[in-house]
Amino acid sequence: MPLRYCEAKSCSFPSVRGFTGRCMICCKFFCGSHFASAEHSCPNPHDDVNRYRYFDALIKARTSRLEDLLGQLDHKALAATASAARNGIPCSIPAFAPGAETAEIAKAQQGGQNFHLDIIFDDDVVWIARLKLANSPNVPPGEIQDYLFKSEVATMKFLATTEVLAPKIYDAKLRHDPTNKVGLSYMLLEKLPGKTLDWNGAPDEGRKKIAIQLAEIFIELQKFPFDQAGSIIDFEDGKATVGGYANRNFFTSPDGQSLGPFSSAKDAYEAIITHQLSLITNGEIGPLQVENYLLFRYLQEKLPEIVEKLGAHDRKFYLNHDDDKGDHLLVDDDWNITAILDWEWATLEPEPVAFASPCMLWPVNDFYAGKSKLAPEEIVLAAEYKKRGRTDMAEFIKSGRYWQRWQFMTVGMQEREEDLEGLIKGLVDVFGEGMEYVAWKKTMMEKLKDDDGLAILGRVTV
Ligand SMILES: [Zn+2]
Ligand SMILES: [Zn+2]
To answer: Where is the Aminoglycoside phosphotransferase domain (predicted)?
Structure first.
């Protein structure tokens, strides 16, 4: 069932799930035909000539949505809730101090899907209230937001039982919980020291030091295998419950149903590929429907090889941070990692996928261009595993591109053909089929010339 429908008048098609289907200005959702049509008059992000108009409108819209949420927030109830969670120690919220520029302060700690407010206790302990940007087009419909919230809370409770430096979670309630007086879904978290890592701006020495520390984190996570693929959705009395994937593309209905959990990677990938193909044919994926369809049929063709390569890794799953591009880490002035943040969207993946290097280490331009050479810091990480006697984990780095390219293409969905060209080249390359994008596309079109799904999307010539 589509997550949302196109909001153009008299259109009954599903809206596209990716960036091309949502307007960041008016918060409306559109099918592949109606974003850029007479029915939608917002400045277009792809209009290069009038780009300033788009950004101007975007900033105004984002500020207005944030102000709207701050208006729904009962800050006195938030302070009282935090205080009650710390045996009555009084606290204050600087963003709501008399005369404070509340929206400006909140904006400084605003990401794509959440914003944070500092809570300062009288004994100088600082907590963070993590609040969802629930009215942003970037976040999915309400019941899916609730599912993601539960998954993030459960994942953080699980992490608290490990040595991983995730913030402690003290309290969390959904917006419609009758005991929630705050007005919005909230999490109260420990504020850990350090500043957000700028990986690309870090000197070589700092990057090396961070790569070495990553080994320790992954070795710790590797101690906790799960029997199912999916996401952690509950954690009570030291026991985790695994549910469907907390992944935007894998939700099957707006009420929070998602794919999984699965007891084998084979079952998981089969279901994921079938689901993605259905999203393409029903119009929830686009543009590049034909190209993405060919891609997922190619992935389907390669699944037996993947399953064979997984071998014994097919039935154990490990926690995988979804957004590990570097700004999920806090570091001190000496490049020590002080915290790992933002566990929203975390999933449980087979070992070679979970422990291939995080994307912060990839040479991203090379990755998109289809080149698969490892970056210097990936070599450092592999060497560190070896030094610690973990040749098995060093091997996950060395063979990393194979799993990363599989995972990247299976889970995501490409919206720009210039990206697809390099990514496909890299993908077919790791499967030992050196071929340029155009040749690959032609081969797939020929193979699938009688395919029903492709017929739905309409014939194209290469
Ligand atoms: Zn709009
Ligand atoms: Zn439409």
So the answer is: 150-348
Q: So what's the pLDDT on residue 462?
A: 43
Burial of 25: CB neighbours in 10 Å, binned 0-12, 13-18, 19+: buried
Residues 155 and 231: beta-carbon distance below 8 Å: yes
pLDDT greater than 70 at residue 40 = yes
The closest ligand to the CA of 12 turns out to be 2
**pLDDT of 51:** 84
What's the 281 CA to ligand 2 centre distance in angstroms?
15
Answer positive or negative: Cα dihedral of 433, 438, 440, 443: negative
3-state SS track over 157-226 = HHHCCCCCCCCCEEEEECCCCCCCCCCCCEEEEECCCCEECCHHHCCHHHHHHHHHHHHHHHHHHCCCCE
Residues 131-135, mean pLDDT to the nearest whole number = 95
Rounded to an integer, what distance in angstroms lies between the CA atom of residue 170 and that of residue 82? 9
Distance of CA 7 from the midpoint of ligand 2 (Å): 7
- CA–CA distance, 274 with 296 (Å, rounded to integer): 8
Tell me, in angstroms, the distance from the centre of ligand 1 to residue 420's CA: 27
Per the document, the length of the chain is: 462
Rounded to whole angstroms, the Cα distance separating 347 from 151 reads 9
Task: Quote the tokens at residue 239.
Answer: 């026991």
Residue ranges of domains in the chain = 61-139+167-191, 199-457
Paired tokens of 304: 């037996």
Q: Which residue has the higher pLDDT, 240 or 1?
A: 240
CATH, domain 199-457, list 3.30.70, 3.90.1200, 3.30.870, 3.30.200: 3.90.1200
**How many CA atoms within 13 Å lie on the side-chain side of 462?**
14
User: What is the whole-number distance in angstroms between the Cα of residue 364 and the centre of ligand 2?
Assistant: 34
Nearest one of 429, 423, 410, 295 to 367, comparing CA atoms = 423
Please report how many Cα atoms fall inside a 13 Å half-sphere around the Cα of residue 31, on the Cβ side: 18
Per-residue pLDDT, 459:
54
DSSP 345-399: T-EEEEHHHHTSPPGGGS-HHHHHTT--PPPHHHHHHHHHHHHTT-HHHHHHHHT
367-413 tens-digit pLDDT: 999 999 999 999 999 999 999 999 999 999 999 999 999 999 999 88
Q: How far apart are CA 352 and CA 248, in angstroms?
A: 22
Q: How many angstroms separate the alpha carbon of residue 409 from the centre of ligand 1?
A: 29
Half-sphere exposure for 348 (CA within 13 Å, toward CB): 33
Ligand nearest to the CA of 42: 1
